[in-house]
Design brief:
By secondary structure, the chain is α/β, with parallel strands linked by helices. The protein contains 9 helices and 14 strands. The chain has a single domain, classed as Metallo-beta-lactamase, Chain A (4-Layer Sandwich). It is globular.
């Protein structure tokens, strides 16, 4: 039997956010991840004739949850949220934690707790498709800021993502790749930089990124096998190197 989920659509909202809509073409059903705004998502669902079967949330920040209540009311869809964000997302229907398995309609995920950006941050991993919905943990050539967690937590969360199969596609929620590219190029020119990535790989990455963005195409999803070669935060060999990078990035 063919997998139920046939594609992931990116719905842009705000300045640089994406909402992900997982579409089961056969059943005309959808699952939505991190809807920070409702109008654009509702318009897409209605235009495509899709019924909303569930809403997955990675963490409690407003640009990820701002449209949830409206979508839940309009489509009567259950909301899944991190157990550790129970106070911030009290309107969720099911709270999830490390190792939980979620099945909604034809959609199945394993829950990974990835603290650092926030303490309760989770990601949703689809083993069959090798899709990771990672919220604000990993970005193209970068990683999320630390608002609640420690450097150790964020480093370990990135190591967990790094350990996933190389063919993994990472659906991160922001279009930050171009900005992060500037940081990587600056980093490669530092005489005392502790991180030495693949310069040729970074040049190829820049070429593809420039082409995609010139056509107004997203850099998401990320190809994990490429990020592992050029993303300095995945190349950090220990917490100390990661801390150095993150603090340097904070100043840019």
């Amino acid at each position: 039997m063919a997998p139920a989920v046939s594609r992931v659509e990116l719905v842009p909202i705000f300045e640089d956010n994406y909402v992900f809509v997982l579409v089961d073409e056969g059943k005309k059903e959808a699952l939505v991840v991190d809807p920070g705004e409702a109008k654009a998502v509702a318009s897409y669902l209605q235009r495509e004739g899709l019924s909303l079967k569930g809403i997955l949330l990675t963490h409690h920040h407003s640009d990820h949850v701002g449209g949830v209540k409206e979508l839940k009311s309009s489509f009567s869809a259950p909301v899944f949220a991190p157990q550790k964000n129970k106070n911030q997302i009290s309107y969720a229907d099911q709270f999830v934690k490390e190792g939980d398995e979620i099945s909604v309609g034809g959609f199945s995920f394993s829950v990974m707790e990835l603290p650092g950006h926030t303490l309760g941050h989770v990601a949703y991993w689809n083993q069959t498709k090798k899709w990771l919905f990672s919220g604000d943990v990993l970005f193209g050539l970068g990683c999320g800021r630390l608002f609640e967690g420690t450097y150790e937590q964020m480093y370990q969360s990135l190591q967990r993502i790094k350990s996933l199969p190389s063919e993994t596609l990472v659906y991160c929620t922001h279009e930050y790749t171009e900005t992060n590219l500037h940081f990587c190029k600056m980093l490669s020119n530092l005489d005392d930089s502790p991180i030495t990535g693949d310069d040729e790989g970074l040049a190829l990455y820049e070429n593809e990124l420039t082409n995609r963005r010139s056509l107004n195409l997203p850099s998401v999803p990320l190809k994990l096998f490429i990020e592992k070669k050029v993303n300095p935060f995945l190349l950090a060999r220990n917490v100390q190197q990661f801390t150095y990078l993150r603090e340097l990035r904070n100043k840019q």
